[in-house]
Amino acid sequence: MTGLAQRPTLDAITGRVFHSAMTETGVFECSESMLNKLWQNIRWTQRDNMHGIPTDCPQRDERLGWMGDIQIFAGTGIFNMDMAAFFTKWMRDVRDAQADDGRFADFSPHPFGRNERFTGVPGWGDAGIVVPWRMWQNYGDKRVLSESFESSKRWVEFIRGNNPIYSGGQSAAMIMATGSIQIR
After folding, report:
1. Strand ranges (DSSP E) for the chain?
2. pLDDT, tens only, 100-138
3. Rounded Cα–Cα distance for residues 31 and 81 (Å)
4. What's the CA gap between 151 and 130, in Å, rounded?
5. Which position has the higher pLDDT, 167 or 24?
6. Which of 76, 44, 70 has the alpha carbon at shortest distance from 55?
7. Could you give phi then psi for residue 56, rounded to 5 degrees?
8. Phi and psi (nearest 5°) for 117?
9. Residue 159: strand, helix, or coil
10. How confident is the model at residue 168, as a pLDDT?
11. pTM as predicted
């Protein structure tokens, strides 16, 4: 705090927790206090990073909806809290940010032009497919799968056409096993 004539007392300051409205659904408790504390920290971190978009780290100036982070955390997030409304809204942002050639943005919403930088990176863009799939697995909601089908198809076609280790329907493992690609 700055601009005060004197240092405030602790009872003069009130802290408020705010985050997107998500009901806690998962519970974990065991006889090991360290594991219980870890789980509490995970829940707090989830709350701290859900403000309309899934941010990755509120402690520094990088508060964007990084898709790689939420792609990994979606299953845990759904276990901990009811994420259905949150993800349904956010997946609209993801689809809106998709480039004309099928690239998903690395973060959504995307503050740059959707055909500009920070797009098309596997692992990050895969959230455009993984999050709707997780929603279907956990909530049985086919609607988000249906709404995301065309954008998911465009992403797969983009990867298929632009990935240097994907060739003619063969997986990277098949290519390396047969020696039909040289790594330099």
Report:
1. none
2. 999 999 999 988 888 888 888 888 999 999 999 999 999
3. 23
4. 12
5. 24
6. 70
7. -110, -25
8. -65, 170
9. helix
10. 52
11. 0.79
**Short-list 98, 96, 84, 97, CA closest to 145:** 84
Measured CA to CA, the distance from residue 163 to residue 60 in angstroms comes to: 33
Q: What torsion do the CA atoms of 96, 19, 42, 30 make, to the nearest 10 degrees?
A: -130
Cβ pair 64, 116 in contact under 8 A: no
Which pLDDT value is given to residue 180? 46
| Closest C-alpha among 136, 129, 134 to residue 155 | 129
Q: How many residues does the chain have?
A: 184
What are the angstrom distances between the C-alpha of 123 and each of 6, 7, 55, 143, 165? 50, 47, 16, 24, 15
Buried b (16+ CB within 10 A) or exposed e, 111-143: eeebeeebbbeeebbbbbbbbbebbbebbebee
pLDDT digits (tens, 9 = 90+) for 4-38: 899 989 898 888 887 888 889 999 999 999 999 99
Query: Is pLDDT above 70 for 61?
Result: no
Q: Write out the two tokens for 6.
A: 């004197």
Name every residue whose Cβ is closer than 8 Å to that of residue 42 and which is 6 or more positions away in sequence: 76, 80
